[in-house]
Amino acid sequence: MLELFPEGFAELAGPEATELVAFTDGAGAERLRARFGDALVEPVPDGWESEWMRFHRPVEVGSLWIGPPWERPMPGLVPVVIDPGLAFGTGAHPTTQLCLELIQSLERTSLLDVGCGSGVLAIAAARLGFGPVVAIDDDPVAVETTRANAAVNSVALDVRLADALRDPLPRSDVAVANVLLEPVEAILARLDAGEAITSGYLAGERPAHAGWAHVETVELDGWAADRFRRQRRPAT
Known about the structure:
By secondary structure, the protein is of the alpha/beta class. The chain contains 5 helices and 12 strands.
């Protein structure tokens, strides 16, 4: 679906399956049929250009409210406004919520967001009082989206274009990596941080973590996130 519709598509979770929905034209429908063979195509009413907005709903995680700019923040919660663009991350995915849950349990120190996407984790951390906060991604669109969302939320982030698997990673007290299992393992081996929060993989999976002590695991809707603490080297 990402290859067919890089501009975006919606996910509708049902009791037995997840339905993928793309708002497209006749040529897009043909591409869909050619790839999947079986696809339901229905005309959409006038105003379909804004129909995608109804799929982006706010979420509440602890003291945080994360939602799009057309929704009203819940009073009493810390608002994080994320405009869904071309970069991954609106706060709705379980792995994002799990990371936000673990971030809130930590002392407010410096933080590195590895693979920042839309910037939701970095911006939420800054809104909670973490600082300085550095956000990196190897996608220029993600970097620009994070900068734009940071401006909307009036937070100061150091946003950098960098490849977490090759470029030097800045030191931080806390690092967060919500990517896939294999990249998480590679990132853990390269981090210079006291604590790490990782996610992007299924419940029952856990990244290999030489040099890290496992602290806790949280799970939501079949996904998992872990908190690690850097192991101290034995005194010589």
